[in-house]
Write a structure and sequence with these properties.
The chain has about 900 residues and is mainly alpha-helical. Helix content is about 55%, strand content about 5%. The chain is built from 35 helices and 8 strands. A hairpin with a 2-residue loop joins β7 and β8. The longest helix has 27 residues. The radius of gyration is 49 Å and the shape is elongated. The two termini are about 70 Å apart.
């Protein structure tokens, strides 16, 4: 256990009096030496021949040479009555013997043994060992005891030098061996044990020196020795040791602070037991700190490591605790109004600040208080940490902002965090730059439909209005989106269609094709916009200054105004009004009987754009209502018309004002004679009622009810006028079969309209196409099935002529799953191009676009692509007209 192995040892205590207790552990060795000296009379003077290395004379085994000098004998006041002290050479010899005695006693072991990392402690005599103390006094105070000396040395410097050499020669290799262990805990424990053993050796010699010094001098010398030793140890920390210390220390800190890394999954049960584990981890951390400090590892590198760990843990805590936590805080606005402070802390920020103050800062204080350095923290540092934590939470929310926008309004809590934290111009700029980059990457590309982009834009408007009522931030990020929407051809149509949707469609499958959110927003935004315009006419008592980062043309808006923002994205209101007239015209010309939704939307838009801007729409709606009344009068007038022919059918018309309706294209073709006669009769009655006006028929927009009587069935369909005209040709006497050329010559109809009409009746199994491009009526379905089984396979060149219908190709069989996936990806690209880029494309343009868009390259030739598109035509997904492919509207 780490807790058991890191118990502080008495031998490492740096106090000088306690260090002396190591001498008692070697009393037995001291007695053995005295016994040997009593048997073998050792002459102390002989030891001068082989002294320990010195600083000035590093040659091993040589005694420093004695330099004589002319000086009088020592004064009697020094108390040196011995004859041997009467000359310079005698005193130099005595100093050499004393130096040898002391350095031999405190010399460090020259090698490593298996029993102890650095051998046993050196031999020592008892504290009453007179000769050693006398020699030590000579070495420590030679100026007093040996005044005639020419050369002296510093025993403290000599000991520090041998400690430095011993550490480099023996301790560092052992630390490298410890660092090779795979377990980080064992690396740290082995290194600490090694350093503790080294400290015992180094402090033992130091303790022998300090016992002959004054208390004050001893404390200063010991302090300097520890400072030098800690500097050596701290600067010699290897990368494996730093990694091990960071791993063990970081793990304990994470457990204490309740942070769990992603690579260590923690179950709910483990988190519930984390409180008890945090207390035990605290004890282990404090024991580790005591050991680290005593062996000298708590230097500058440790302080840097600890600061980096604190920084990483704060980031991990914020990511783990608050990522994706956007729960709306409904009580936040209530608290702000009650306290009168608009900057009430949201829930996440309140929890984060509390964690920094009561856990994060407390741990930092506890650890730094155990360091011997001057690193201390104050409450000003705690306030700075809180600010840093809030800033990092803001950075997290900025990274999540796109997801917050998509999840609105269920992500209101994330916006509350940003609104509290993002207050400076620098952070506001960081937010807009990051969001604009994400917008380009995740939204503004061909793979996203216009409907998705518009829905995201609506969420952006509402989200950024909550974040910043000034709308400065929204204007920054929305510019690129507005430009991109202008390149989409269906943008205005989707917006107008959404405004004209029914309220019943909001929660139905219509959401997949219509922007039904605008139905609810239209009423809400129109009321807010109208009240806002009224307020602008008077002095605003709630006026606020513009933000510091607002532009020179900035004008504050009070409401979200989603509809107005969407319309302004189109460039000008005229673009929207023109498209609105076109779409509402199509709806007015449909088979609807009431137009309550259209009238309601028109009234709401008048509040925004004014009466005059939508005057044409008023005329269009009035035309529909007036034409219904006028059509009834005309049909009653045809009853008494002199040219009346008895028929079981009649015609009805919607009479439109030419100058107020959008430009409607005209497709001319020859109508059946009976229909032409009825139109002329209708015109004559109308001109009688409206002498100053004339009627121009738009036959291609008409609707007809057709009833077909075949041999085995009767078919009734509501079709377009051109479809009824084509099938009427087959009802003529002796005209049950027609070629495409003959029909085109007879009806003088556009080729695309004629092709579409023939394909329509083929799908209804009313006519069929023979191999010679002749169309015949299917009187009996059984004949059609039998003849189709006898038809030869179509030629590969079928469909090459633009005037003839394309023969669809069937899908290949035996395609692998991988090939099916690839073909599905290609089809998604084609659908995206025909939806977003252009509604119709020729084969060559589709092939070129595919080669540009697909990153891995498009390997198909034009023939293979044409075959694939033919399969989609056979499946009813595509159609071809005028040599261009387009999606079938469903």
């Amino acid at each position: 256990m780490l807790r058991q192995t890191l118990q502080p040892r008495e031998a490492v205590d740096p106090q000088p009096m306690e260090v002396l207790q190591y001498i008692d552990t070697t009393r037995w060795n001291a007695r053995r030496r005295r016994a040997a000296q009593s048997v073998f009379q050792t002459d102390v003077s002989s030891s001068t021949l082989s002294s320990a290395p010195s600083l000035c004379f590093p040659e091993q085994g040589r005694t420093p040479l004695v330099q004589t000098r002319s000086k009088k004998a020592a004064d009697p006041q020094f108390g040196l009555a011995s004859p041997e002290n009467s000359s310079h050479a005698a005193q130099q010899a005595r100093f050499a013997r004393s130096w040898h005695t002391v350095t031999t006693r405190i010399a460090l072991p020259p090698s490593v043994t298996a029993e102890d990392s650095f051998g046993s402690l050196p031999n020592s005599q008892d504290l009453e060992d007179g000769p050693f103390l006398d020699a030590l006094l000579d070495v420590l105070d030679p100026a007093t005891r040996l005044p005639l000396l020419v050369h002296t040395e510093d025993i403290l410097a000599w000991h520090s030098h041998q400690v430095r050499l011993h550490f480099v020669s023996y301790v560092l290799p052992l630390l490298d061996v410890c660092g090779a262990h795979l377990d980080q805990t064992q690396v740290l424990l082995g290194s600490i044990r090694t350093l503790e053993a080294a400290h015992r050796q180094y402090l033992f010699g130091m303790s022998l020196i300090l016992r002959a010094m004054d208390k004050e001098d001893a404390e200063l010398a010991l302090m300097k020795f520890h400072r030098d030793l800690y500097a050596i140890v701290g600067n010699s920390m290897s990368t494996p040791l730093i990694d091990a210390l960071g791993s063990v220390l970081g793990h304990l800190m994470r457990v204490i602070l309740g942070v769990y890394s992603a690579d260590q999954p923690w179950t709910r049960e483990k988190k519930a037991a984390s409180v008890d584990k945090a207390e035990s981890s605290k004890k282990e951390l404090y024991q580790l700190m005591d050991s680290v400090c005593k062996v000298g590892l708590a230097g500058e590198k440790f302080q840097i490591l600890f600061a980096e760990l604190l920084d990483e843990i704060m980031i991990s805590y914020i990511r783990e605790k608050f990522a994706g936590v956007w729960t709306p805080n409904k009580d936040l606005d209530i608290k702000a109004r009650a306290s009168g402070n608009p900057k009430v802390k949201p829930k996440c920020i309140e929890e984060l600040v509390d964690w920094v103050e009561h856990k994060y800062a407390e741990l930092a204080f506890e650890v730094t208080s155990r360091l011997s350095s001057n690193v201390k923290f104050s409450w000003a540092d705690v306030a700075k940490w809180k600010e840093i934590a809030v800033g990092r939470l803001a950075a997290l929310r900025i990274d999540e902002l796109f997801d917050i926008v998509i999840s609105w309004p269920n992500s209101e809590g994330g916006i509350d965090d940003l609104r509290y934290a993002v207050t400076t111009p620098q952070r506001r700029l960081q937010l807009t730059d990051a969001f604009s980059t994400t917008l380009q990457k995740r939204l503004l590309h061909a793979g996203r439909s216009t409907l998705d982009i518009l829905r995201t834009y609506i969420a952006m408007i509402r989200t950024f209005h909550k974040l910043d009522h000034s709308r400065v931030l929204l204007d920054r990020v929305a510019y690129s989106l507005q430009l991109y929407l202008c390149t989409r051809e269906d943008t205005v149509r989707i917006i107008v269609t959404g405004l004209l949707a029914n309220r019943e469609e909001i929660n139905t499958e219509a959401r997949q094709t219509k922007l039904v959110e605008l139905v609810e927003l239209l009423q809400q935004d129109s009321d807010q916009y109208r009240s806002e315009r009224q307020d602008e006419e008077w002095d605003d008592l709630n006026w606020m200054p513009a933000p510091v980062d607002a532009g020179h043309n900035y004008k504050r808006r009070k409401s979200e105004d989603v509809i107005g923002t969407l319309i302004s994205a189109l460039g000008s209101a005229e673009v929207f009004i023109k498209e609105f007239q076109s779409i509402i015209g199509e709806r007015l010309l449909s088979d609807q009987t009431t137009f309550k939704q259209e009238v309601g939307v028109l009234d709401l838009l008048k509040k925004r754009f004014g009466e005059s801007s939508l005057q044409a729409c008023d005329v269009m709606i009035r035309d529909v209502h007036d034409s219904a009344r006028l059509d009834g009068v005309i049909n009653r007038g045809t009853v008494n018309h002199p040219d009346k022919v008895e028929r079981d059918w009649t015609i009805h018309a919607r009479i439109l004002s030419r100058l107020y309706w959008p430009e409607i294209g005209e497709e001319r073709f020859v109508l059946p004679p009976s229909v032409s006669e009825m139109q002329k009769m209708y015109e004559s009655v109308f001109e009688h009622l409206k002498p100053s006006r004339k009627i121009k028929w738009l036959n291609h927009l008409g609707q007809a009810t057709v009833e077909l009587e075949l041999e085995d069935r009767t078919i009734q369909e509501n079709v377009h006028t051109y479809e009824a005209t084509v099938i009427d040709c087959f009802s003529e006497e002796n005209a049950s079969s027609w070629t495409f050329e003959d029909l085109w010559m007879k009806l003088q109809m556009d080729e695309d309209l004629l092709t579409a009409a023939l394909e329509f009746w083929e799908k209804k199994h009313v006519i069929r196409r023979l191999p010679d491009s002749t169309y015949v009526v299917i009187e009996r379905l059984s004949d059609a099935e039998q003849s189709s089984s006898l038809q030869p396979a179509p030629s590969m060149n079928a469909g090459a002529n633009d005037n003839a219908p394309v023969t669809p190709r069937k899908a290949k069989s035996g395609i692998s799953e991988k090939e099916k996936e690839k073909r599905q990806v290609y089809w998604q690209f084609i659908v995206g191009m025909l939806t977003n880029s252009s509604p119709a494309m020729p084969l060559g343009q589709i092939s070129m676009m595919m080669k540009m868009l697909i990153a891995d390259g498009f390997p198909w030739s034009n023939e293979e692509l044409q075959e694939f598109l033919g399969e989609k035509i056979a499946d009813g997904e595509l159609e071809i007209a005028g040599g261009k492919y387009r999606l079938i509207k469903k």
